[in-house]
Design brief:
This protein is of the alpha/beta class. It has helices spanning 4-7, 26-34, 48-61, 80-96, 111-120, 135-144, 155-163, 194-204, 218-226, 248-256, 279-284, 296-310, 333-347, 351-356, and strands spanning 14-16, 39-42, 66-71, 125-129, 147-152, 168-172, 178-179, 209-212, 231-234, 262-265, 273-276. Helix 2 runs parallel beside helix 3 (48-61), helix 3 (48-61) runs parallel beside helix 5 (111-120) and helix 4 runs parallel beside helix 12 (296-310).
């Protein structure tokens, strides 16, 4: 058993998933880390200055280790005609708000600049999604003092991360909320359920596997540990915490969501992501295959989603959530971490002592 949690001085094999946009506030990250798990700052959509400020905010609230997550994205080179077609499809939605469809002069943050900024003040862990680092980039993270977690949705992707020197791989099951971390496959090929993906990843990889997707309570954590995962990453479980930054409409939608209300869609961002079904998804579903890839569609819909949030409307927001959303609990993040820890340990009595003999939780 690899000593992933112990190497971090964490008594709890739990990682709070980095959720880009409003959910993952410095307060949420700090509360999770302070409680003994690993908080993760979602920095994929932050510029270097904003990312540095967010990291400083986390450090002002806790002296415990935390992770920072970045999107591995090549510079986009959109075709003008593709952009104009996408803008035309979105025009009716913007007209309802009295807004014009944006004409972005920049589609996303510069990954190279983000990486330079985070390595100038490195956290304990760096996690990456949407792509894969080179072996040289992984070595740079290591020299700076950060260990690396790669996101994978298939065994092949996990092996690819292992081959470039990653310290751990997050196996993202199909049940997970938010964007898919696939980079070698597309569509249905990257939608493997956690119960199938995790043990296959564990069997094939020699580095620690972190399970993600559909885990909402101690039962799920215990199941993932029995499957061989060294830790569990949970995102949707933290959305209703008081430190979460989601808006009122998103929160209200989560409070009443049922198990069959999520779906995987590309219409909001151009990349497959799981969230609550709503009017925008239904109306755009007919042209989903024509939506430009991330980050183009994401930039084109951002002002629309922001306007809907300001108006307290859930019908035009990307309400990211996993299939376990109906089990989400509203409480402070630290209290949730402690409850989750108590739940899984009650189900696996003696587990900690047995694994401690092997140098892990």
């Amino acid at each position: 058993m690899s000593p992933l949690p112990n190497s971090l001085n964490l008594p709890i094999p739990l990682i709070q998933a980095p959720m880009a946009g409003s959910p993952t506030t410095p307060a949420l990250v700090a509360a999770v880390s302070q409680a003994g798990a690993l908080g993760s700052l979602a920095a994929g959509m932050l510029g270097p200055t904003a990312m540095t400020q967010a990291m400083q905010a986390v450090r002002a609230l806790t002296d415990q280790p935390f992770a920072v997550n970045l999107f591995v994205l090549p510079p986009p080179a959109p075709e003008p005609t593709e952009v104009e077609r996408a803008r035309a499809r979105l025009a009716p939605f913007y007209q309802r708000h009295g807004l014009s469809v944006p004409q972005p002069d920049r589609w996303c943050e510069d990954f190279s600049a983000q990486l330079e900024a985070v390595l100038a003040d490195p956290p304990a862990w760096l996690s990456f999604t949407f792509g894969i680092l080179s072996a040289e980039q992984v070595q740079r993270c290591h020299r700076a003092g950060s260990r690396v977690i790669g996101t994978a949705t298939t065994v092949a992707e996990g092996l690819a991360w292992q081959s470039v020197g990653a310290d751990a791989v997050c196996a993202q099951g199909a049940e997970a909320g938010g964007h898919r971390g696939s980079f070698l496959v597309t569509g249905q090929a990257g939608l493997i359920g956690s119960m199938a993906l995790v043990p296959q990843m564990v069997d094939r990889l020699s580095i620690p596997v972190i399970a993600a997707g559909g885990v909402m309570d101690g039962r799920g954590i215990a199941a993932c540990l029995l499957l061989g995962a060294q830790a569990v990453q949970m995102g949707t479980a933290f959305l209703l915490c008081e430190e979460s930054g989601i808006d009122v409409a998103w929160r209200a939608a989560l409070m009443t969501a049922q198990d069959d209300q999520t779906r995987v869609t590309r219409v909001f961002s151009g990349r497959a992501a799981r969230g609550l079904n709503n009017a925008f998804i239904e109306q755009m579903s007919a042209c989903e295959d024509e939506v430009p890839a991330y980050p183009l569609q994401n930039a084109l819909t951002a002002p629309l989603r922001q306007a809907a949030a300001r108006q307290g409307r859930a019908d035009e927001q990307s309400l990211w959530a996993g299939q376990g959303v109906a089990m989400a609990r509203a409480m402070p993040a630290g209290a949730l971490v402690r409850r989750l820890d108590a739940e899984w340990r009650a189900l696996l009595p003696g587990w900690s002592a047995r694994r401690a003999q092997n140098g892990s939780v």
